[in-house]
Amino acid sequence: LLLTHLLEGARAAGAEVDSIRLAERKLLPCDCGHRFACWVETPGRCVHHEEDDVGTILKAVVEADFVVLATPLYVESMTGQMKVFLDRTLPLVLPFIEEVDGRSRHPLRSLMPGKRFALLSVCGHYEMAQFDALVKTFEQIVWNLHGVCVAIICRPQAMVLRNPELIGPVYDVVTGAFREAGQQMVVEGRVHPDTLAKVSCQLVPRHAFISEANRVWCESVDRHEF
Fold it and tell me: How confident is the model at residue 222 (pLDDT cuts 50, 70, 90)?
């Protein structure tokens, strides 16, 4: 839902958008047996190059001006599909090690330095602090890819957005803020602090959120469906 609004805003600002849903693609794990084949045997190419869709996705990442990684929060981190994909970005860098500002990373092979990245994540918990581990991981990944972290867009209490009638006008505030964020990323290369505040604004009081969440889960368990 929220990624759709973000991309609508980007398109409205003139961007050409390519959306790749990893769950619908074939992604094999990075499992060449610790041979680092993409560095040593076939430099720049994974052993699974002709067996799955990762090569095509990496090509899109290389050619894009801006990359948005969108994932729900899964056990304090990203989905398994997103992690597998990021593991498979190894061919984009060289095996050698360089020191930058007292930290070590690999030089780039096929990415342009300074590529812009943004993170979009949602979770079913109440507070923003739930995203801390994911955000730290994202920032490290972007730094390792010599990129620029343009925006971190996190939406707690996301399940409430399934029922717009529960929150009234705030629903339009949040979805509108996601469209604003998409426009600002394209036009200005950043997202305004006030837009991020609207993106993550409180939907309902904490006690009401917990009470309603527990009610929904009780009903789902009784029905054996969610």
Answer: very high
Q: Give the pLDDT confidence of 48-86 residue by residue, as tens digits.
A: 999 999 999 999 999 999 999 999 999 999 999 999 999
Give how far Cα 164 sits from Cα of 2, 20, 215, Å: 13, 27, 17
Who's near 165: CB < 8 A, 6+ residues apart?
none
Q: Kindly report the backbone phi and psi dihedral angles of residue 119, in degrees, each rounded to the nearest multiple of 5, phi listed first.
A: -110, 135
Burial state string for 117-132 with b = 16 or more CB within 10 A and e = fewer than 16: bbbbbbbebbeeebbe
Write phi, then psi, for 200 (nearest 5 degrees).
-110, 15
What is the pTM assigned to this prediction?
0.94
| Residue 176 CB-half CA count within 13 A | 7
Neighbours of 221 (CB within 10 A): 10
How much is the pLDDT for 226? 80
- DSSP-derived 3-state class of residue 69: strand
Structure tokens at 55: 């090569």
- Dist CA 102 CA 8 (whole Å): 40
* Average model confidence (pLDDT) across the chain: 95
Sign of the Cα pseudo-torsion (44, 50, 51, 56, in order): positive
Task: Return all residues near 203 (Cβ < 8 A) that are at least 6 apart.
Answer: 157, 160, 161, 167, 170, 174, 209
Distance CA 41, CA 47 (A): 9
Picking from 71, 65, 61, 116, the residue whose alpha carbon sits closest to that of residue 91 is 61
